[in-house]
Amino acid sequence: MRLDELVSLNSYYFIGLGKKIAGEGGCKKIYKTLDEKSVIIVFDNDEKLVYFPTKVSIPTYYPLIEVKPPDKISAVLMDYGFGWYFSKI
Predict the structure, then answer these.
(1) Structure pTM?
(2) Spans of all domains in the chain
């Protein structure tokens, strides 16, 4: 995921966290995906959480961890869009 392909938001109401405003209260930036299926909050310490809005208002937050793929990849398998699996040659 590239943060330059996301839409920047000034504020967003996160269930369980309340309203967050970019640049205030430890919240550095807020982004949403173009399909609006997830929202990313970046904290001042550069920790990132991904929030997946649901119709039943159950908060689901996951840490966004940046990884570098290995130099040589023999196969890439998708897990329904939730993860990448790499196999070294």
Answers:
(1) 0.70
(2) 3-88
Question: Residues near 52 by Cβ (< 8 Å), separated by ≥ 6?
Answer: 37, 38, 60, 62
- Tens digits of residue pLDDT in 33-78: 888 889 999 999 989 999 988 888 788 899 988 878 778 777 666 6
Name 11's Cβ contacts closer than 8 Å, sequence gap at least 6. Answer: 19, 20, 21, 22, 30
CA 50 – CA 12 distance, rounded (Å): 13
Query: Under 8 Å CB-to-CB from 19, ≥6 apart: which residues?
Result: 11, 12, 13
> Are 49 and 61 in contact, with CB atoms under 8 Å apart?
yes
